[in-house]
Specification:
Blueprint (H helix, E strand, L loop, with lengths): L19 H7 L1 E8 L13 E6 L3 E5 L2 E5 L3 E5 L6 E4 L4 E8 L1 H4 L21 E3 L2 H18 L6 H17 L8 E2 L3 H14 L16 H8 L3 H12 L3 H19 L4 H7 L5 H12 L3 H7 L1
Antiparallel strand pairs: 1-7, 2-5, 2-7, 3-4, 3-6, 4-9, 5-8
Length: 298
């Protein structure tokens, strides 16, 4: 695989053992970044927002757009918007904090994070920092790390306040807009589309059905027109976006029929089908069997 098309690095220090379950329970996890972009522990990234302070020369890729970062930059990442990072230095350094929306809203009834200018679809949540701004942001991250290691009963509230300080500092700035076009945008778009598709699986609960089911659903978080997405995916992979989605949904349907005791209607709903009859028609079209017949056969 072309390293420029590799999935986004986890921005984790390779010596740290970070538990996804611990992160889910506490709602946040901060760490200092120092990595050669070897893959770190894998999280269900759709669950976690991220604020990162990056001090290395790198390029962040969003669909068919890129932005080069050289110096200190502050980045806000939405779990539903995929991106990748191309490193131009020996190591990626800085700080990062992962957190859930529920954690940030625990004592706050404000709007959802994905509606925030820093996290919403189509935004540009990357900020080049001056020396003064960089020192301020680094100080906040160091306070978060120090507080995370204490036994203070209300450290979660204090860390939430520090994160809000970073958010408000960014809201006062103008985001970086110096995007450039990729020469091979079709491959980049296809790579991010496939990553976004895969992020939805496996289905762990009927209460969390598929978010993205149509080409338009995928085009919106990638901030490109649906026709542009369809052309890019077809050009890069030889298959349509619809074919990729259908194949992945069929594969997940088979796994759920085989490994769970959920009824057919529940499985269909979890996979984005409002009515069981629609799921039956879809499954039989792609497998030649009804869901019940497939379940009995395995």
């Amino acid at each position: 695989m072309d390293p420029k098309l590799a999935p986004a690095p986890s921005l984790l220090s390779t010596h740290q053992d970070l538990s996804a379950q611990e992160l889910k329970l506490k709602g946040f996890k901060a760490y200092q970044v120092d990595t050669a972009v070897n893959p770190g522990p894998t999280y269900r990234r759709r669950d976690f927002y991220k604020v990162a302070l990056m001090t290395s020369h790198c390029t962040v890729h969003y669909a068919d757009r890129s932005i080069e970062l050289n110096g200190t930059s502050l980045m806000f990442a939405n779990p539903h918007i995929p991106y990748s990072i191309e490193l131009h230095a020996p190591r990626l350094t800085g700080y990062s904090c992962l957190f859930t929306e529920a954690y940030m809203k625990e004592n706050d009834r404000s709007e959802s994070l994905h509606q925030s200018p820093l996290f919403k679809v189509g935004g540009t949540p990357i900020f080049h920092l001056s020396a003064e701004q960089a020192a301020y942001a680094q100080g906040i991250f160091q306070k978060i790390l120090a507080e995370q290691a204490t036994e203070y009963l209300y450290k979660g509230d204090l860390i939430r306040t520090y994160l809000q300080l970073l958010i408000h500092e960014a809201l006062r700035m103008q985001p970086t807009e110096s995007f450039v076009q990729h020469k091979n945008s079709a491959s980049r778009i296809a790579s991010l589309f496939l990553e976004l598709l895969e992020r939805q699986f496996p289905i762990e609960s009927p209460e969390k059905p598929l978010s993205f089911k149509t080409a338009q659903d995928f085009a919106e978080p990638l901030a490109i027109h649906v026709n542009h997405l369809n052309r890019a995916v077809k050009e890069a992979t030889g298959k349509s976006t619809t074919a990729h989605v259908a194949e992945r949904v069929v594969g997940e349907a088979k796994a759920l029929l085989h490994h769970t005791d959920w009824d057919v209607a529940t499985i269909g709903y979890a996979l984005g089908f409002e009515y069981a009859s629609y799921f039956n028609i879809f499954f039989k079209k792609h497998t030649g069997l009804t869901p019940l017949a497939f379940r009995k056969a395995v």
